[in-house]
Amino acid sequence: YNSVYGVCLVTGAPIGKPRLDAKPWAKYTIETVRELERLGKL
């Protein structure tokens, strides 16, 4: 059990239901993923 399920580990923002439906183990919002990729950190 993870008490922060559905919350982005970087921003603390809720992860959208469509993203969680597609990838239930998601740790970041799609916006955070895009930014981390842009910065070369993912």
Outline the biggest β-sheet. none
Number of domains: 1
User: Span between N and C termini?
Assistant: 25 Å
Radius of gyration: 10 Å
- Residues in helices, as a percent range: 25-40%
Notes on the protein architecture:
It is built from two helices and no strands. The chain has 42 residues and is mainly alpha-helical. The chain is globular. The protein starts with 16 loop residues before the first helix and ends with a helix.
Summed up:
The chain is an all-alpha fold and 42 residues long. It has helices at residues 17-22, 30-38.
Outline the fold blueprint.
Blueprint: H1 17-22, H2 30-38
For the structure shown, list the relevant keywords.
single chain; mainly alpha; 36% helix; 42 residues
